[in-house]
Amino acid sequence: MGKTALQHAMEVKDLGKPIQYTIRNFVKGDEVALSGIFSECFGPTTPRRLKEWYRSYGVRPEDVFVGVVDGKLVSCVELIFKQLHHGEGVYVKTAGLSGVCTDSDYRCKGIVSNLMKTALEKNRQNGLSNASLYTGLDIPAHRIYERLGFVDILTWRTYMKYLDYPYLFGVWLRYLNRSLRDSKIARRKLQGWEKSVAIQLKDVGTLSFRFRKNRFERLAKTPKEVDIELSTDVETYTKIRRNVTGWEEAVKSGKLIVVKGDSPDIEMFQRILHWRWDE
């Protein structure tokens, strides 16, 4: 997808030992390593799907910045240029930051922060007055974005109606198994955690699964004894999963009832629910 347009070396300190890394632009073949990092951070991604995504959004090699340690691609930031609508006939070009991710073995070393700074500097050199991104409010990366000057301007809300939630529940569990295969940090966190979960959904019934032998398994029949038991409705459960409603907020309002579950198990279930594995 083109030759390298940018390349320079930097270093950070890890427990007193300097770690050298290189920042450069995307080159042909990087999609293989990038798809692995994307799979760990965002869910299953193939090299072909990544290339198709770049092509459909017009992402050029010089718009993708990667961090490389000892020849291994470990981090990424992308620029996607869009038009923000500011009223009838009024549009402002913005650089959307996307694909911000780092291999879990190389996080908390400042690599992705410097990738973002490099991308934002290119944005300024191109004469754009602003940059934007979509992110969760309660994730560690949000603090990085604030330090770089981003401010919250909108909280996204989702409204949808599910007609066959048991089917979607099964799809979700299959997705978790695919994601687990790609996530080193999730496998480490879940090692030795073998629990069963029952979710009582009003107007739907009880949906249950267990995690055993490093795999999520849907249960056709809910066991008499489970480790975690919850009671809520489809709308609340969906909003919690999509971070529209906070867990504590739902519990406080009475829309989510924790019938059974120790605090460490509930915390782990929330990690699974949001697929969030920050160290």
Let me know the number of strands.
11
> What name does the CATH topology of the largest domain carry?
Aminopeptidase
Write down the domain tally: 2
Q: What is the count of helical runs?
A: 9
Approximate strand percentage = 25-35%
Order of strands across the main sheet: 1-2-3-4-5-6
Summarize model confidence as the mean pLDDT. 86
Helical residues, percent: 25-40%
H-E order: EEHHEEEHEHHHEEEEHHEH
The top level CATH class name of the largest domain? Alpha Beta
Please tell me what the overall shape is.
globular
Structural class: alpha+beta
The major β-sheet equals:
6 strands, mixed
Please provide a written account of the structure.
- α1 crosses α2 and α1 crosses α5.
- The protein starts with 6 loop residues before the first strand and ends in a 5-residue tail after the last helix.
- The model has no long low-confidence stretch (mean pLDDT about 85).
- The protein has helices at about 30-40, 45-55, 110-125, 140-145, 165-180, 185-190, 235-240, 245-255, 265-275; strands spanning about 5-15, 15-25, 65-70, 70-85, 90-100, 130, 195-200, 205-210, 215-220, 230-235, 255-260.
- The protein folds into two domains: about 5-145, Aminopeptidase, CATH 3.40.630; about 165-275, 2-Layer Sandwich (Nonspecific Lipid-transfer Protein, Chain A), CATH 3.30.1050.
- β8 and β9 (about 215-220) form a beta hairpin.
- The radius of gyration is 21 Å and the shape is globular.
- The chain is of the alpha+beta class.
- The longest helix has 18 residues, at about 165-180.
